[in-house]
Amino acid sequence: MSDSEEQPTLFEIKDSNLDTGLRGIPVGTCRTSFVSPTKGVHYVGYPVSDLADMSPEDIVFLLFEKRLPNRQESQDLAKEIAARAEEMPAGALRILESMTPGSGHAMDWLSVGIQALGIAETTGDVRADSLNLIARMPELMATIFRLRGGRGLPKSGSEPQRGMVENFVHLLGVEGDEAEKMIRVLRTFLVLHMDHGGGNLSTFSGKCVASGRATLYASMSSAMNALSGPLHGRANQSCLEFVQRIGTDDPAKIEEFVRSELAAKRPIYGFGHAVLRAEDPRAAVQIDLGEEICPDDENYKIVKALREVAPKVLSENPKISNPHANVDVASGALLHAVGFHKPEYYTTFFGWARVIGISAQIIDERNARSGRGVPIYRPKYIGVNQPIQRLE
Ligand code: AMX
Which of 8, 281, 295, 306 shows a CA-CA span of 20 to 30 A to 70? Predict the structure, then answer.
């Protein structure tokens, strides 16, 4: 990949590596997280399951500063995020009011909303822009949910000092017991989904665009467009739809269903991964949370049975590198159980979380090379008619 052939390489590129979506080819370093094929994602060295009960704001600190905050730092960052949310320019999201409820996909609205925030205010300082965007995401998310659902603008005013997730739920107009469960599930969801190494499609796309010195908002909007694909972030929507199609927690019937889907060449959603080679620890965290939040929920019971049955069937096919559950297996069932009944919104939660990890990675790339930043991305493509020395 590198033009400087004298540099030692970690990986020898062969013809068989071409046209594989850069699969497995090292292209850079990542300071926020790494993914162990057997132990899953680690944020700054911490296994994500050890962080699952922490506040999302503390994980923002971890990903930005590369260490956990002390109590004072935790309070200071929470206050800073609340203050930046309060300074949202008036009318920044007005463009969303002109969009037709129910039109497009919710991820399209998220992408437009992020660009709108950037149009209203871009400082050019990627750290300040990142924190402003992170702080304003709860209001953007609630505005999308309400306007796209035809329910008008949030009725109650934004109260960012409640915390990011708490303010989002408040802006949706949900209070009391229902709000408590929503908050519990969403806080864990956000923490688990914030970052997943540097090479996943949305993170890579965001960093690619940012490397041309586009604004944080333009870069993030591109990242969200990448995340919207059904093979990437939109899989969490497909996963609940898949579970609902199964419709029973009887293991024998589930096995029959899985076999018929495979015979029809359809994916078994919630299983398999490009990098992981064991069950994703984020699946286990969410299944444990379901035991606490919604043990008798129909979808949740199906997910639990599917988790046992599907790997046995999938492992009969040696082509499938990882027959185990991935992060998406249970998230839809949990979100549904706490009141989010429309799967087409699930990927926006994923996007909300990733705004945090991708921002942290864009900041790191801008600070690289003693502040000069990473050069503009420019991988090499080989023209099909170009005379070259074959590599194998
Ligand atoms: N169901 C059916 N077939 C599967 C499968 C599954 N769960 N997992 C892998 N396979 C198939 C692949 O489609 C591929 O078939 P092909 O050779 O005909 O193209 C073959 O097995 C080998 O695939 P692989 O090397 O094990 O995985 P991959 O990196 O090509 O694909 C993924 C990874 C996630 C796209 C795939 O496992 C899949 O489609 N899973 C179901 C969808 C899903 O749950 N996606 C969410 C992933 C997590 C995320 O990014 N949000």
Answer: 281
